[in-house]
Amino acid sequence: MINKPKIVIVGAGSAIFGLSMLKDAFSTKDLWGSELVLVDIDKEAVERMELVAVRFNDYFDAGYKISSTTDRLDALTGADFVIVSIAVDRVKMWKKDFSIPQKHGIPHVLGENVGPGAVFHTMRNLPIILDICKDIEKYCPDALLINFTNPESRLCTAIKKYTNVKVVGLCHQINAGIGIVSTLTNIDREYIDVKAWGINHFTWMVDIRDKRNGKDLYPLLIEKEAIYTTEYEKLSRFIFRNYGLFPTSGDIHLGEFFPYAHEMISKAGYDFNKYEKRRQNVVKTLNDIINDEVTIDSELIKPSGEKAFTIINGITNNTNEMVESVNIPNEGYITNLPNDAIVEVPSLISGNGINGLALGKLPRGIAALCKTQIDVQHLVVDAGVNGDRNLVMQALLTDPNVPSANAAMKIYDELMEINKLYLNQFY
């Protein structure tokens, strides 16, 4: 790997994602002097993000070669790393993915990554993700694609199955699990070391230790969880008591996998108002940076918690850093999950690339839950890539969240029609 790579960020016009990536780029000093290309179909948004990047670059004298463009092909030529976070009409269509199954009697709790709505979320994002991969194959075939786009497991499965692109999927949800353990045990999260594996948003803490002395924290967690207030993370704790391992993702994401989640957590779904307020706050920060109304300092570029630049730096400079959670093809890492699965495991990052930890078997009950979802992932991906309507129905009927054939048919009819604009592969 060359010392100063070319890094392309697709979707950089997004306020939250774009600023997160810039924080990580400028807080990773070993990569200063690299090339940074910001890409988005929204010209005004990506040019504004470039202004922020240039201000950071000038202030820190970081030496990045910075540019922005709406031309993906121009950006990708010669890239070493391609970071992608995109969504097709994200908020508008997510609301449909959530409300229509509920209207037909499916009491799901989120509708983003698992369940009937996620079938259509996946198929909307597949065409553009695979188009980006075709361009990578042509213009930078050796590049590593770092994907943040949801549904993470499904899109990484499609990339692995239908392209030659090297891909790793990233998700920060393990931090939620560490936070829950910290709350239950009353140990500061900075001292908690977790080894967890499974599939995205459905990973399981097999080992929890105190970083200060290596002590196994599971006995303490069991003791404290049993007496903690009952309303806190009810679903996660119910699953823990019955399956024996603590899940990492927190109730709302965990709830996507269980048809009975609504019995313990809210069916209100994603808090879009809260998301919009957060986005507006980030937009204000961007405006303040551009207009020189905020002090640029190390606090402003505090790392976001995402791991894209950790991986880029690890591969570029052979840091041998452990990343707690990456989504990669299952090459024997979890022996009782299929080899064609995308699994989420801890990995060592070095000049040799991304090397997952081989962690053995999951308990049978947990493995069974994961295997069902892996099969649904393949059905959805094959349906979306090939425009196969029968496989769409199979995906709906196979998902544990859909216990009714009548509901499945109604959801299929309505969401296929609503998504017609996005699903050219079916027409």
Automatic annotation (TrEMBL):
<dbReference type="InterPro" id="IPR036291">
    <property type="entry name" value="NAD(P)-bd_dom_sf"/>
</dbReference>
<feature type="domain" description="Glycosyl hydrolase family 4 C-terminal">
    <location>
        <begin position="197"/>
        <end position="402"/>
    </location>
</feature>
<dbReference type="Pfam" id="PF02056">
    <property type="entry name" value="Glyco_hydro_4"/>
</dbReference>
<dbReference type="InterPro" id="IPR001088">
    <property type="entry name" value="Glyco_hydro_4"/>
</dbReference>
<dbReference type="InterPro" id="IPR022616">
    <property type="entry name" value="Glyco_hydro_4_C"/>
</dbReference>
<dbReference type="GO" id="GO:0004557">
    <property type="term" value="F:alpha-galactosidase activity"/>
</dbReference>
<dbReference type="Pfam" id="PF11975">
    <property type="entry name" value="Glyco_hydro_4C"/>
</dbReference>
<comment type="similarity">
    <text>Belongs to the glycosyl hydrolase 4 family.</text>
</comment>
<keyword id="KW-0378">Hydrolase</keyword>
<keyword id="KW-0520">NAD</keyword>
<keyword id="KW-0464">Manganese</keyword>
<keyword id="KW-0326">Glycosidase</keyword>
<keyword id="KW-0119">Carbohydrate metabolism</keyword>
<dbReference type="InterPro" id="IPR053715">
    <property type="entry name" value="GH4_Enzyme_sf"/>
</dbReference>
<dbReference type="InterPro" id="IPR015955">
    <property type="entry name" value="Lactate_DH/Glyco_Ohase_4_C"/>
</dbReference>
<keyword id="KW-0479">Metal-binding</keyword>
<protein>
    <submittedName>
        <fullName>Alpha-galactosidase</fullName>
        <ecNumber>3.2.1.22</ecNumber>
    </submittedName>
</protein>
